Amino acid sequence: MENKTKADLLLLHAGQLVTVAGDSAGPKRGAEMAQLGVIQDGAVAVKEGTIVYVGTTREVLEQVETHPGTRVVDAGGKVVLPGLVDPHTHLVFAGSREHELELKLQGMGYLDILKAGGGILSTVRATRAAGKAELIKTAGKYLDQMLSQGTTTAEVKSGYGLTLEDEVKTLEVIRELNRSHPIDLVPTFLGAHAVPEEYKGNPEGYVDLVVEAMLPAVVREGLAEFCDVFCEEGVFSVEQSRRILLAAKERGLKPKIHADEIVSLGGGELAAEVGAVSADHLMAVSDQGIEQMAQQGTIAVLLPATTFCLMGKQYAPARKMIERGVPVALASDFNPGSSPVNSLQVVMGIACRQLKMTPAEVITAVTINAAHAIGRAAEVGSIEAGKKADLVVFDALTYRYLPYRFGTNLVEMVIKNGQVVVE
Q: Are 100 and 346 in contact (CB under 8 A)?
């Protein structure tokens, strides 16, 4: 008799096991985004934190056996998804900006608030003044909230320091949180988030600082995988953004870009030109930008909660992107100003209603495509043998219920690396 695999964890009887399997080599595009690989009465077997078998409950039970320490989870006909992946957050900051809500209600625009010394610059002042311990404590609280809502992997950007010392401090906080918190964090250097007040009127001088001092230090200390830049009118031009991203690429950081958020500046085109892994925001992206991103395979990371919170009328053209073959991911953009939202369940609900994405497309966008957007698709983003056992059990009978019933946390259980971390 052949020896069966001894499982450490068995998840059985999922009403819908949503595997999102089959696209770990490249993101889902077009019609593929609606293919979820749903298994009825699904099961997952886990050994040493890694998925070893996926199939129907009957199939999996034929392949494995338990041992005295095996944890058996009866999913009870509920929906099980891969752990959700949030590929764009600004998690580490001090202070908050709830007063800006009233300014927005009075008609003040995002760039107007920034010009008046508010917005990002107000958070920069608070973050510079905060010590590491305070930043770790605050960000840890936000991570607990995210984990309880099903997020198991997240990208985190610096960008509220804007000095060499404070950008390094922020990235060190991200590294410490990655070690201490169940959520896996992927670090991005965003020194070019805004021109700080001490460089007002001298953006080129600040770009020099980012390229000549910050980038070498970040790479030397191994503090980031990606480099991002806020390419926007009144922030960093296409030329300045290109210079920063190419310098980062030369030093081994993978480029990302905040592109065409408010003004159609050519950020989508620049993303394709420099081979960016993703272009994010894209509410004002041009048709040419969409075409070039599709050809290059640049992932569009859309942030509908940001448009919602800024009370913008123009959402990113998700349907056009999907139809033209741009791989689409979704993220929270969690930050203290334009998106104080850290629940991907809320993002999924807004994406269906405002981006006109289907429930299946939305699930693809917060799992496998989001994993591709941060270089983690070989490890997470789908329920497949060989991947990390990151699983979420939702109190729902069908996956369509999740974006339909948004605003309530439907998570019943979160499993991270084969361990039950939320119950």
A: no
Q: How confident is the prediction along the chain (423 residues), in pLDDT tens digits per residue?
A: 468 999 999 999 999 999 999 999 999 999 999 999 999 999 999 999 999 999 999 999 999 999 999 999 999 999 999 999 999 999 999 999 988 888 888 888 877 887 777 788 899 999 999 999 999 999 999 999 999 999 999 999 999 999 999 999 999 999 999 999 999 999 999 999 999 999 999 999 999 999 999 999 999 999 999 999 999 999 999 999 999 999 999 999 999 999 999 999 999 999 999 999 999 999 999 999 999 999 999 999 999 999 999 898 899 999 999 999 999 999 999 999 999 999 999 999 999 999 999 999 999 999 999 999 999 999 999 999 999 999 999 999 999 999 999 999 999 999 999 999 999
Burial label for 304, CB within 10 Å (0-12, 13-18, 19+), is buried
Terminal Cα distance for the chain, rounded: 37
Torsion angle (degrees, nearest 10) of CA 280, 283, 285, 287: 120
Give the Å distances, CA to CA, from 371 to 22, 114, 245, 301: 13, 31, 21, 11
The model's pTM: 0.97
Centroid of chain to Cα 383: 18
Residue with tokens 């990113």: 316
* Cα distance between residue 303 and residue 313, in whole Å: 14
Q: How far apart are CA 341 and CA 309, in angstroms?
A: 9
Tell me how crowded residue 115 is: count the other CB atoms within 10 A of its CB: 13
- Tell which residue, 12, 84, 79, has the closest CA to residue 342: 84
Phi, psi of 57 (to 5 degrees): -55, -40
d(CA 48, CA 388): 9
